[in-house]
Structures are given as structure tokens and as C-alpha cells.
Amino acid sequence: DAGVIQSPRHEVTEMGQEVTLRCKPISGHDYLFWYRQTMMRGLELLIYFNNNVPIDDSGMPEDRFSAKMPNASFSTLKIQPSEPRDSAVYFCASSLGAGGYTFGSGTRLTVV
Amino acid sequence: GNSVTQMEGPVTLSEEAFLTINCTYTATGYPSLFWYVQYPGEGLQLLLKATKADDKGSNKGFEATYRKETTSFHLEKGSVQVSDSAVYFCALSDLYSGGGADGLTFGKGTHLIIQP
Questions:
Q1: What proportion of chain B, given as a percentage, has pLDDT over 70?
Q2: Residue in B87, B89, B74, B77 with CA at minimum distance from that of residue B15
Q3: Per the CB < 8 Å rule, is A106 touching B43?
Q4: With contacts defined as CB-CB under 8 Å, which chain A residues touch B49?
Q5: Rounded to whole angstroms, how far apart are CA atoms A14 and A82?
Q6: Could you say which of B54, B63, B74, B104 has the lowest number of CB atoms within 10 Å?
Q7: How many CB atoms lie within 10 A of CB A85?
Q8: A12 contacts: CB under 8 Å, gap ≥ 6
Q9: Alpha-carbon distance values, A55 to A36, A78, B32 (Å)
Q10: Is B43 helix (H, G, I), strand (E, B) or coil?
Q11: pLDDT tens track for B65-94
């Protein structure tokens, strides 16, 4: 298995632009998680899905953030409009139940 | 709510030294406990885990024991190498909070630097 695949690896965008981050989980995994990592706040859980259904989005910082999982093999995290304080590394992870979480390599987002 | 506290870094050691990174937790249910490692520019990799009290997780010379009485899961290694330099995260997953996986709660990470 290729593991959890995230794209792009790096994204630089201007303030106010829309940003879409993508994730392909491990085939057969029924949970998908989006995390954000910053120096100040560490790793924060933004949202997670079970069988493509959003279960808990209480970590999504504000309405500018949205996430979708249209099928078992794809998820997106969208920021519209983006702001400089959104600059961070965004990780996607998937798991089969609570058995183990596999992380992608992350997307480093820079908003200028 | 759930929380994980781990020692502040950076921790700087010489090669072959003994390593301990402390981790304590607060959870409402019966959590599973994990240690993840992050190398520069990479995602998090599972290092070891323990799912119930008194379990010992081990991998690559690292080990940690789930101590329910002290709510701790300290990471240890007898002889560290330069290649162990990375950021180490303690985490928990509370299996009963939502009836299934509920996402990991992470500590803030400990940056380990091993000098030759």
C-alpha cells in the first residue's frame, strides 16, 4: 500500500485566495482525520470522518474552513478565503477503527 | 476532557546515553496510548502503542509501559543514536468517548537532539 497520500506537498498562496488540500486514505480504512500543526499550538484535530460521514468538526477554527469526503478514497480540506494565520502544516491520517493511525506526509501551507 | 502532557524540549543527549521522555495523561474513559516520531520534513510515524494498563509497547529499542496508577506512559531507550534525533509525540485515543476511534489527542512534542 502506498500509505496516506496528500497533495500538494507545498502550497503558497496570497491572502484571500481559496486553497484546497487533498487526501487519499489507505484503502479499507474507515476513519479519516485532518490535523493542523503549528509551532504555537502543536497538533490540533480539525475534523474527522467515519465511513465518509463527518463525525466531529468542533476543531474547525471558523467558517472559512470546510471539509468533504465524497467517497471512501478521497477527502478535501478547503480554506476560503485564506489568511496568513492559516499558515501551517496540514496532515491527513486514516485508520481502521481505533487500531492504528497512519499519517500522510503533510501539506505545508504558506499564506502571504 | 482528554489531555496529554509531556516534558518540554529540546532534550540534548550524547550518543549511547539513556533516554527518558516523560508523558502523563488525563482521560475520561479507557484510553489507548501511543508514541509517534516525526523526522524533519516528514509526517508522524507510529513508534509504539499500548492498549491497556500494564501493557508495554516496544519498537526499535524504545519502550513505554502503560501505568494506570500514575496515568503515565514514559518513553525510554537504553542507548540512543544520532539517528534517533527527531520530535517525539505522546498521544492518547479514548476508545469509549465515541464508541470508536475519536482522533488522537497529542502532547506538544519533545524535540530530541543526539550529539555524536
A1: 93
A2: B77
A3: yes
A4: 100
A5: 8
A6: B54
A7: 11
A8: A110, A112
A9: 17, 17, 20
A10: coil
A11: 999 999 999 999 999 999 999 999 999 887
Q: Which residues contact A99 (CB under 8 A, 6 or more apart)?
A: none
Chain B residues whose C-beta is within 8 A of a chain A C-beta are: 32, 34, 36, 42-46, 49, 89, 93, 95, 98, 100-109
In this predicted structure, the answer to whether residue B99 has a pLDDT above a threshold of 60 is no
Q: Which amino acid is at B29?
A: G
Reported as a single tens digit per residue, the pLDDT across B19-57 is 999 999 998 877 889 999 999 888 899 999 998 899 999
C-alpha grid cell for residue B8?
518540554
Closest B-chain CA to A41: B108
pLDDT at position B101 is 57
Peptide bond into A25 cis (omega under 30): no
What would the grid cell of residue B47 be? Answer: 513508534
User: Contacts of residue A31 in chain B, CB cutoff 8 Å?
Assistant: 100-101
Contact (Cβ atoms closer than 8 angstroms) between residue A106 and residue A37? yes
Tens-digit pLDDT profile for residues A33-55:
999 999 888 888 999 999 999 99
Q: Output the pLDDT for position B16.
A: 96
Q: Is A25 in CB contact (< 8 Å) with chain B? A: no
What pairs with residue B90 in β-bridges? Answer: B35
Torsion A107-B105-B88-B48 (CA) sign: negative
Q: What is the pLDDT of residue B97?
A: 47
